[in-house]
Specification:
Helices cover 48% and strands 15% of the residues. The chain is an alpha/beta fold. The chain folds into four domains: 3-180, Beta-Lactamase (2-Layer Sandwich); 203-375, P-loop containing nucleotide triphosphate hydrolases (Rossmann fold, 3-Layer(aba) Sandwich), CATH 3.40.50.300; 377-459, Orthogonal Bundle (Helicase, Ruva Protein, domain 3), CATH 1.10.8; 460-521, Homeodomain-like (Arc Repressor Mutant, subunit A, Orthogonal Bundle). The strands form four sheets. A six-stranded antiparallel β-sheet has the order 3-2-1-6-5-4, sandwiched between helices. A five-stranded parallel β-sheet has the order 8-9-12-7-13. Strands 10-11 form a two-stranded antiparallel ribbon. The chain is elongated and about 115 Å long.
Amino acid sequence: MSNLDLSTDLKDRLSQLSLLFDISQVISSPLPFEEIIESIFKKLQSGIQINRGILTLLNRNTSEIIIDTGFNLTPEEKSRGRYRLGEGITGEVIQTGRPIVVPRIGEEPRFLNKTNARRRPEDLELSFICIPIRQGSETIGALGVDKLYTDTQLIDVDIQVLTVIASMIAQNVSLRQQFQEEKEFLLRENIRLNQALTEKFRFDNIIGTNHAIRQVFELIAQVSTSNATVLIRGESGTGKEIIASVIHYNSLRHEGPFIRVNCAALPESLIESELFGHEKGAFTGAVSERKGRFELAHGGTLFLDEIGDLSPLIQVKLLRALQEREIERVGSGKPISIDTRVIAATNRNLEELMSQGKFREDLFYRLNVFPIHVPPLRERKSDIPLLVDHFIEKYNQRHGKNVKRIASTAINLLMAYHWPGNIRELENTIERAVLLASDGVIMAHHLPPTLQTAQSSKTEIFQNLEQRLDQIEKDMILDALKATNGNYSKAAKLLGLTERKMGLRIQKFGLTKEVLKGTFL
């Protein structure tokens, strides 16, 4: 070898070392991952004359390979670069863990050009070098570059350089892989939960056939497709939050956030910051800026429960947010535009509060664009059996129980009770009964003492032994008739009685089909 050849080879080696040193400096810098890879590709462009570069990652959860960072690729070209393990050159490199060199991509059928970035005739003359990125014994991604075809010897040198770089960035790529996998998982989980919520809050999943609640359903259907502000009124425990959820998940905003705020649960000193956010240093403890619920609900729905408990100061700011569609964070005079639908709810008499000067009339009219009144449970008692069946099924699954039915005596108690706590109280009652029931049947004694008063059960306080035994016998017969859908013969067999004895007891207690009609038959 001549001195000239040695000199040229030494220069090439020094050039490679200089390139790798520069790249090592970039890798050790505090730049974000994307900027580090972008800088590496730029140095490779000037150092070994690459045209394009891609960094691909393997998602171990889905076995899909995606382009994480692309150099001289448009966003559309980058998004098209998705591969399965073993698919194309990139898929094969990551599957086998071995580098592949394509001297001319136009002559290699395995080169799929999924990005469609090589469209010109001269692109077919490019070489493609793909190097696996390994962390321990695992291949986690690949480093690929395009460059003009020269000769095999120079390509071998490029492979050496790219292999060193792949090992240098392996730790960074591993962390990036974990981050992207978690991000992908959260995105899929968010979609799944959103679909589950949409399914849960479909109209036909809401329980009730009573005329009063059907009117509510009709109003929900009418207002859901609009962006109108809704005011839901009704007693505590009637399901106002569920109705707000149904409106959101059946609206055009269903893919946006649904943010809930209980105005009565937050102290006055915090409610302004919770709703509108605050700037760093706005008050003691405000160590950083914070978005309020209005901003968090941007593009979706903000549900303000117990709206009647807001202070006059917050009422003024809420009115401005509704009118102007903009807010100001605490400690800032800069207006922030919002695209947030508001659904409010209250169990208080707002008209009375207005007459007392405790609630602003202008805010009331701004909220009361589309009012919905939710009837209390005592006005829709015909829905109690349906609700009971739903709650039994719900708490069977939650607590691993196998309650199959509820006794007639227990249903009678539920129907006679006035339910001051509405559906919430009924749900709690059934959950307790499901936990207490040991033989697959909820009996009257499984219900709380408040339901077993003389007034609610329509029984006399004082009964002698004979009267009490008659009552128990009658209840057992009613329960058997309910279980057999009113079939006297089957009910007798269930109770271990002859049909003659059953007939005598039916006559004794007056349990004819005419009497029972409308009760459960």
